[in-house]
Structures are given as structure tokens and as C-alpha cells.
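Render this sequence as a predicted structure.
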Amino acid sequence: MARAPRPRHITLGGRAAVALTVEEYEQLIASRRQIGGQSARVRVLAQRARQAEQLLDDLEALIAAHRAGCSRHAHPAPADRPEDGTTPGAPSEDVPSRCLCGDVESLLRTHRDTVS
């Protein structure tokens, strides 16, 4: 990284100012462009995070609405995620008292807990 420029304070027309060499000015402009690019990337990532959050909220609402009328959803899906966060070994079809909505609900809850 280049050395930090030492500002040269001057008075111009009765106002305090800082004088830069052409090289220092070009470095300043390049730094501003880099920061602007990074700021734009952060805004895009923040928007994507908000969209993903909204998708999760919509999924949770859809599952909650489905849950009331689901004949296979006799018991809530247990929090059966292993400690390492991997997917449970037995799919819903193998356990008659569970259904896909319970598994998805458990998965959503697990991932929400890791982000909170």
C-alpha cells in the first residue's frame, strides 16, 4: 500500500484548503471509485438478503396455512437436525406420521436459528 499522503494546508482566497499533487489527486479519485464499486456491491447483496428473507417469510406463511389442513401432519416434525447441521437421514416418506411440510418447517427453523 502506498504511503499516506501528507496534506499541505494552504489558504486560497481567504479559505483554508489542501493542496495535492496530480499523483495524489489521481490516487484519491481511484480510491473513491473503488469505494463506490464496493458500496454498489454491498447494496446489491443487501437487496438479495432482503429478498431471501422475504422468501423465507413467505414459505413459513405458506407452510403454516397448509399445516392446518394436512392429514399427514399429525405431529410436528421434531428438531431432528444433527449437531453438524446436515440433513436428517430419514426422508418424510419413510415416517408415516411426518410430512414434507414438517420437514421443510424444521429446515427453515434450523437455518433461521443459525442466522439469528
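Summary. Residues 3 and 57 are 49 Å apart (CA to CA). The chain is about 55% helix and 10% strand.
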